[in-house]
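Hi everyone,

Forwarding the result from last night's run.
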Amino acid sequence: MEPATLTLAGILMLALITVEAGGAFLIRVTTGGHPTNGLQKSWYRAGHAHAAVLLVLALAVLPYTDSADLPSWALWLARSGIPTAAILMPAGFFLGVLGRDPAKPNRASLLIPVGAVILTAGLLAAGIGSIAAGRG
């Protein structure tokens, strides 16, 4: 594996520790230790799940980027798209329902579709690059 890939993999593994902390927070939420409304509870769960799944997905895709046949900008997108989405989407879920008793999500929830677009771009770049490397 390339040194840059190993470095990013290490960062992603350490980032999973924040997901553990989020799990502890969710336990407090679901047991009544942190008062929330139904919207907050469901969005916190979605944010936690997206963080975990996207970080693990980033770790799974990362080794394939070393062999991808892509121009440098697309290789950068293949390596960083999924980890970026793993930050933006959960942030949108958590920050989108901050407050004492929100009735609807706030503007921070726009991070969710932005993250989804970046996730799609990263997956496209990694997938196309892997196919090209496999055929070449």
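Residues 3-135 form one domain.

Cheers,
N.
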